[in-house]
Amino acid sequence: MGSTPSDIYEELRGALSSTGAEVLLPGDGEKYQESIKRWSDHCEKRAVYPPAYAKQGVDANARQACVVRVTSKHDVTTTILFIREHRIPFVVRGGGHSTSGSASIEDGLVIDLSRMRSVTVNPQNKTITAEGGTLWSDVDDEAAKYGLATVGGTVNHTGVGGLTLGGGYGYLSGRYGLVIDNLLQVEMVLASGEQVIASETDNEDLFWANFGVATAFTFKAYDQPNPVFSGPLIFLPEQLTQVVEFLNEFENKTDGNQALLMGFACPPPARAPIVMTMPFHNGTLEEATAFFKPLIDIGPIANHTTMMPYHALNTCLNEGQGFGGRKMFGGGAYKLPLDAEFVQKLFAEFLAFITREGQNTEDSILLFETLSYKKILEVPNEKMAFANRGEYYNVATVIKWEDPALDDTVRDFSRALLKKTSQSAGIEQDEKVRSVKGVGVYANYVNPDIPASEVYGNNAEKLTELKKKYDPENLFDRGTRLVPRPLVVVN
């Protein structure tokens, strides 16, 4: 008789018994249920019995949901070696924020980094080192103690690992580039179980590609002693044309210290459609007021702008963005100037969908992210695997719903709307043009089922070759597909 799932995982428990790591199975009650929680409910994956997979030398008894809450890179190595021995499918969870589902699995093992949240700041060298399970709130708050900051996201409950490895846009990108542009080194565990450091001078090709479990990141930090200007400015739908007119001047006026988000939503309690903007200025109140005066002069129905510490800025959009409920990111790109009539039509189409009776999708948002790309373009697309550098901006949908029966409807609507937006700006290009001007797709806003060439452009070919070097057995087989998965589900 073969071993049982509990026998197999008891072996792993024994190997990790002295480290404080936890090995959780579906029978472990609330602890297990807590461990599979994700930012979006549609990404939560529970155990499936019995597993119906092609054998291919795999220990079928090991195909049971398991979560390993590691506490160190050594725990990760132990777990990776165990995975290799038993040929267990696995994924890695950092902040649990992705809506692609790539941090969850039904029939294998989750390496959960959420207990690795240490942040170390070196004020002399102006560097920040964050463990693989760290959230941006951890980084922002610790850096602020030293009057420092680094490029992060626009909400602070996202994981550092996912945002970084996907490129990473934030309020400071106009001044300092992408998150990944400020990455100095990564500590990671490879598919072989080996622990390595990758940087521009050590394991350079691995730093370029990032194949492994990232257990720590070291970033450049910058002086940020002064508060910043930001906060919501809310407008009526009939003021949209004037807002777009201001947005169209942004590109020519910004010096990299400003950003502007513009979104369409129907927030509670009134559920009335609004145009929400989120201005940002890294400087004095007088400078900010002068820069955004034409926008403020339009006459917002609510003005919550103020000066605030940088680490508080990334909390402004947190409300309504917590864990729970079904959510999906979608991403595209747009160029300035925007045609106001086209934007009006997008607004109407989006509102018609999210207010459709019975869908419960009113908490959704369509967001135009105008974060200056001038600094980002100083780095060529070939410098890193990330290939979304171009003279355009990201546009995103965050759609929320409740009924699982709407999953496909939501996905199809989001893709069609965003495709229309990208096509209107001439973003969709053949692969030769993409490699030079950017793919027009932000990796953190897409599902992993799209071709790798659409996310990485001509960099996909080099990634595939490096994949063979660092993961020849395709142990890391989730996420955007570079090579076919070795295991096939049998219906």
UniProtKB/TrEMBL annotation:
PANTHER family for this protein: BINDING OXIDOREDUCTASE, PUTATIVE (AFU_ORTHOLOGUE AFUA_1G17690)-RELATED, FAD-BINDING PCMH-TYPE DOMAIN-CONTAINING PROTEIN
Cofactors named for this entry: FAD
UniProt keywords, alphabetically: FAD, Flavoprotein, Oxidoreductase
Species: Pseudopithomyces chartarum
The protein's name: FAD-binding PCMH-type domain-containing protein
Residues passing through the membrane, by range: none
Entry similarity comment: Belongs to the oxygen-dependent FAD-linked oxidoreductase family.
Gene Ontology MF, one: FAD binding
InterPro entries: BBE (IPR012951), FAD-bd_PCMH (IPR016166), FAD-bd_PCMH-like_sf (IPR036318), FAD-bd_PCMH_sub1 (IPR016167), FAD-bd_PCMH_sub2 (IPR016169), FAD-linked_Oxidoreductase (IPR050416), Oxid_FAD_bind_N (IPR006094)
